[in-house]
Write a structure and sequence with these properties.
The chain is an alpha/beta fold. It has a domain of 193 residues: Rossmann fold (3-Layer(aba) Sandwich), CATH 3.40.50.720. It has nine helices and eleven strands.
Length: 319
């Protein structure tokens, strides 16, 4: 089934992350009402825009199964981005937590049903694929090597089953490397930006990986396009569709950060860190399915996106 319907009101879990923030911002520009589901006590909640179209709902992952939705009007779509322990090798292999994430994903489908949603869109990960040497498409075999990747794969399958049982349209996305304002502090992009802004030489691997980076604003546009035109039952890979050596990206980050900070350009310490045992060396999205079904193509160059991100870090984060 194809969407192609005007979106009037959505719900977003994980709304304080890079994609959630960008999606909310895009919705406000289009006059779309947004209900953001937030974890109580999180300092990141301050990032949510103060706008009449944005409604804060304090409902963490563990509360979704029983949350009373009577005070929330009917929504069109629920976007599920929230996930515990998504960053760091140790966290991603915390199997008990990753198993809980699967349960919470299924809970989010039931929440979507109670909210009157017609469509559910979930955010999976490149980690579902494991290591490959070709562009990643919806038909690429999934061979996850981390607990996180295994859980994301299971969550995509189980939310699909839950949606079929409840009569909801289901779309799953496998998100590659997204960067932008609001991204996690532990990501490579954010770490290098903070070092470069502070005048510290970032320590890196040899950075020989071939990588695909997508700006969060572009990802938000893609998620909105899927909300309106995506085909229920399909899986879409989310990336720029372009890849370059990681070293090129790091050099660009250092150049942009030097420009914004007004200080000298730092020199990355390539080879200062070893590769991990399960290091992915090739990462590129095949976005032909996304483009064919929605007409969407990324618009932001890495150069422009990283300048916006570095400016946000300087303004909003300690370095």
């Amino acid at each position: 089934m194809t969407g192609d319907r005007r979106i009037k009101r959505i719900g977003v879990t994980g709304a304080t992350g890079a994609i959630g923030l960008a999606l909310t911002e895009k919705c406000l520009k289009q006059g779309i009402e947004v209900y953001v589901f937030l974890r109580r006590g999180s300092k990141r909640n301050e990032r949510i825009a103060d706008d009449p179209l944005v409604h804060k709902v304090y409902c963490g992952l563990e509360e979704m199964a029983e949350y009373d939705t009577k005070d929330i009007p009917e929504l069109d779509i629920l976007y599920h981005f929230a996930w515990m322990k998504a960053f760091g090798e140790e966290a991603r292999d915390d199997l008990k937590t990753q198993i809980k994430n699967i349960e919470y994903a299924v809970d989010s489908v039931n929440l979507a049903k109670r909210l009157g949603c017609r469509r559910y869109i979930g955010a999976g990960s490149q980690a579902e694929y494991g290591r490959h040497t070709e562009a990643l498409g919806s038909g690429t075999p999934c061979l996850p090597e981390t607990g996180y990747g295994m859980a994301k794969l299971a969550a995509g399958q189980m939310t699909g089953l839950a949606c079929r049982k409840l009569g909801l349209e289901h779309i799953w996305t496998r998100v590659l490397s997204i960067y932008g304002p609001g991204d996690g502090e532990g990501t490579l992009v954010m770490s290098v930006i903070r070092d470069a802004l502070a005048g510290r030489n970032p320590e890196c691997t040899k950075a020989e990986q071939i990588w695909d980076y997508m700006y969060s604003g572009d990802a938000a546009d893609a998620f909105l396009a899927l909300g309106e035109k995506g085909v229920s039952g399909r899986t879409y890979v989310m990336g720029s569709g372009k890849a370059a050596a990681l070293r090129e990206y790091i050099d660009e980050i250092c150049a942009a950060s030097a420009e914004i900070s007004g200080s000298g350009r730092v020199k990355p310490g390539y080879g200062a860190k070893p590769y991990g045992d399960r290091q992915v060396m090739y990462l590129k999205a095949d976005i032909s399915g996304l483009a064919a079904d929605t007409g969407y193509r990324p618009q932001t160059s890495f150069e422009d996106g990283i300048r916006k991100t570095a400016a946000w870090v300087k303004e909003n984060m300690s370095i």
